Amino acid sequence: MDEIWRTRRRAGALVLWCGLFGLLSACALPGPSAAAATATPLLGTAWRLSGVTPDARAARLQLLDGGRIAGSDGCNRLVGSYTLDGEKLSFGPLSGTRMACADHDPASAAMSAALTRVTHWRVEGRVLELHAAGTVLLRFDAALP
Q: Which domain holds residue 17?
């Protein structure tokens, strides 16, 4: 119990000291967690669809400035538009090539359809999740440079 009292007294003294001397920057509370501070930026990052079989060509997505997207569903190149408002994200119509790929992974084939249902996004570390109605539709990993 004495240790708790001493810890509280030290914390109170620190707050008083900071207030008296106006050294707010030296006494600032801890900022966001290390994971949040090192989160990969949504825009400009090349995102690779998670869960794609190692031998398949990876589906990927990149949100560019000006509301444009570029990427691939693992076979066909994709282009289109997006709208971003805080944590809200929606994709406009997508277009792309129509190639016939024999080794096209089913997970990446469903990517285009899932993108049209996205309503929200979240990045945690090097992982991007695209959500709709509280459900993760797609999960991407930041591609290594």
A: 2-30
Query: The tokens 């090097």 sit on which residue?
Result: 126
* Helix-strand-coil split of the chain, %, nearest 5: 25, 35, 40
- pTM (two decimals): 0.66
Cα 100 to its chain centre, rounded Å, is: 31
* 123-143: pLDDT as tens digits: 999 999 999 998 999 999 998
Residues 119 and 83: their CA atoms lie apart, in Å, by 10
Residue 145 vs residues 44, 45, 50: alpha-carbon distances, Å: 12, 9, 17
Domain co-membership, 19 together with 41: no
